[in-house]
Amino acid sequence: MSLRIPPPWRWAVLAVAAACAPLATAQPGDDATVLRARDALTKKDAAALAAARAAIDPARHPLAMWVDYWELGNRLATARQPELEAFYARWPGTYVEDRLRNDWLLELGRRQDWANFRAEFPRFRMNDDRVVTCYALLTRHLDGQDVREAARAAWLAQRDADDGCALMARTLFEAGRFTEDDVWLELRLSVENNRLRAARDAAALLGKAAEARVLEALNEPQRYLARSNAGHGAHGHDLVLLAVMRLAAADPERSAELLQSPTAHRLPAALEATAWAHVARQAALKHLPGAAEHARRAFRLWDRAHPPGTQPGWSAELLAWHVRAALREAAGEPRRWPLVTRAIEAMPPAEQARPAWVYWKARA
After folding, report:
1. In sequence order, what DSSP letters do the residues of 184-199 get, joined into one string?
2. Residues 84-93: pLDDT tens digits?
3. Secondary-structure breakdown of the chain: helix, strand, coil percentages, each rounded to the nearest 5
4. Statement: residue 202 has pLDDT above 60
5. pTM to 2 decimals?
């Protein structure tokens, strides 16, 4: 848990709020108490926080609620529900009330105290924490509800690994609600976004043997691709793709050489297309001249393996770099605009509607 300390600029805003509060007249001693409490929180000094909370007068200082929040939040790991209820009663309807509720929901999830979590979650007004969302979806699953689609979307959208989404994914995978295909998709998205802890958490769902192979492909991709048996066995092609993606992040040119090598491990056209799409993105990030050609190769392979009009499920961020690679080509390059059009049309509708892509598609 990370308690919120207002940044320096926000202290000025809070000072204005203090000046405007009609029922709270701040005293110099109370101001010093708030500052002492903030320093005590930084140092995790429970005794100093408790003393500050006892010293400040809630009726005189509008920032007393923050001192109260820091003091209780600092010992939240040992707190009990009645203490939280008393805090809510002291500061009803305030930001800190709901902010502490957010922290408490995270703590209840870590404890797997689902009874108190179920009672607390409906009162969470901001409802803006993905970890809490994963815990909430898990409780609904435990109550017998079908949450597969919402849970899958939350898991795939996580910015990095967290305890709530990891526990939810493990529980739903063990219950057969998440499939191995879901796990491999999460692995690809995690590697694409350099979320290696999330990738390791996903790999652990596959069992010890598969997890070891995934970690080898991620940690030593070039060595893995050099193995004669790379690409063999269950999900061998998926492992090759992960290794290519990891190598491309460091050296897209080397990845391109390996994909074109006569001794390369042949991938099905759809997976090879995805491999080239990632090589193109990394090459574009590094402003390498072959990026647009790699993107064209990716689309050719994809179209060869699918019915006309079928769009690849590549991320909007990846496709955006394909567009940028095309736009960096010489103005007279005849294949420039078709690649811009193809990449934008492969984006999700909401992404295509962004003004930048509307403009460039019109230009194309």
Report:
1. HHHHHHHHHTT-HHHH
2. 999 999 999 9
3. 70, 0, 30
4. yes
5. 0.83
